[in-house]
Amino acid sequence: MILAPQPEPASWQLPPAMADSAPPVDSTYNFIFWFSVVFTTVITVTMLYFVVKYKRRKGVPSEPTGHFNRLEVFWTVTPTIFIGVLFHVGFASYIKNATAAEGATEIRVRAKKWSWEFEYPSGDRVPGELTLEVGRPYKMILSSDDVLHSFFIPEFRLKRDAVPGQYSFISFTPTVVGDAQVFCAEYCGTSHSGMLASVKILPKKEYEEFLAKIDKCQGTPEECEPAKWGEKLFVKNACTTCHGAGGSGVIAGSKSPGPKLAGIYNTMQPMATGPGVMADENYIRESILRPNAKIVAGYSTVQMPAFVMKDPQIDAVIAYLKSLK
Ligand code: CUA
Asked: Could you tell me the distance, in angstroms and rounded to a whole number, from the CA of residue 109 to the centre of ligand 1?
């Protein structure tokens, strides 16, 4: 589905809008901009008029002005309403971009000093170039190998930090065929300004050709099939001893000592104390590294040891758990 055939012409202030995340930002920006222009003009002109009109004159005594309550209430309440509306507009589009559409294609984005690497669902990794299909919803899963970076695509009006030791997410649907640009928007060292990647938004047919072309993973077999590698790590670390084969939560016909893992991804998990927790990438990561940070309801007596794993291994185990239904 092509939502718009051609890039919107760049305005004198903004680059072309190339994803569904852009129009709400642009309308908010334009509203704030023209609101500011109008009020700056009105206030400045009024002020200059009063400066001249009420200029101190010889022989004319000054008069105290006193209070005018109705006027003061008016200019306090009116901007508050505008700010409330702006908050609502901004928060609504923030939430929309933070939550992925059902069935969105996941792409892993790894930031490092000083480049971007994109991993497609097939496990193929492509540095420096992000290829997308127009009209397809995407979810980016961002992480950093070293320091704080920030994933910024001006044409999509989207920016999200890539933080070492955790995952952050951003969602969008490209709406226009064409080229865009990834920038790093967080100062991350001497080559920060060169930390760029290109974005290519292709029609469906060309996107499929691209996928067919990259579907020859150049890395090690482990890197190419993260879910399979994750399964090996799962078995090798004896996770099955407590969580059952394939994370089934069942051992020899009865409930396993550790909770069921199959099918929990992206579902709410009830906790032993406090509110439920969404079983996303960050939750799984934390549960591997600090198992007792969040205890699932019904398993409070079980002590799981902390596992020491590197980021690629954790990613592989997460990929495996996501594949379990
Ligand atoms: Cu990475 Cu700045």
From this structure: 13
